[in-house]
Amino acid sequence: VHLVESGGVLVQSGGSLTLSCTVSGTTLDNYAISWFCQAPGEERKGVACISSIDIRTYYADNIVKGRFTISSDSAQNRVDLRMVNLEPEDTAIYYCAAVRHSVFRATVSSPLILNYDYWGQGTQVTVSS
């Protein structure tokens, strides 16, 4: 299983962008996909999660604040994270990761704290003030 992120750019405060996570070696029917971010000197944090087969999404509201939307395209085997009204505090490397649906469905807590099976290499998002 291989995950590749794309779409990270330099954007001005208040701007928008869409990150993409392209999955190969499996399909979105087998894995829930999440986005994480890691700012310099900080721990990695979960941002959003989607289960395409269960048609469920989950957001870290303290980070997202209603500004991000996660979506999936099963035909393209891709998960997008649409980010609007970006703030300098959103500057980070954004990673996507995959966790098996059996694990995702078994959790009663946040899917963003699960042990993920596969990770991408990350894409840099920089928001200038």
Task: Walk me through the structure.
- The protein is mostly beta strands.
- The chain contains two helices and eleven strands.
- Strands 2, 4, 5, 6, 9, 10 and 11 form a seven-stranded mixed sheet that branches. A four-stranded antiparallel sheet has the order 1-3-8-7, with no helix packed on it.
- β5 (45-51) and β6 form a beta hairpin.
- The radius of gyration is 14 Å and the shape is globular.
- The termini are far apart.
Compact description:
This protein is 8% helix and 50% strand. It has 129 residues and is mainly beta.
Topology of this structure?
Blueprint: E1 2-6, E2 10-12, E3 17-24, E4 31-38, E5 45-51, E6 56-59, H1 61-64, E7 68-73, E8 78-83, E9 92-100, H2 101-106, E10 118-119, E11 123-128
Parallel strand pairs: 2-11
Antiparallel strand pairs: 1-3, 3-8, 4-5, 4-9, 5-6, 7-8, 9-10, 9-11
Number of strands: 11
Estimated structural class: mainly beta
Helix-residue proportion: under 10%
General form: globular
- How far the N terminus sits from the C terminus, by CA atoms, comes to 37 Å
Beta content comes to over 45%
Rg calc: 14 Å
The H-and-E topology, N to C, reads as EEEEEEHEEEHEE
Feature tags:
129 residues, mainly beta
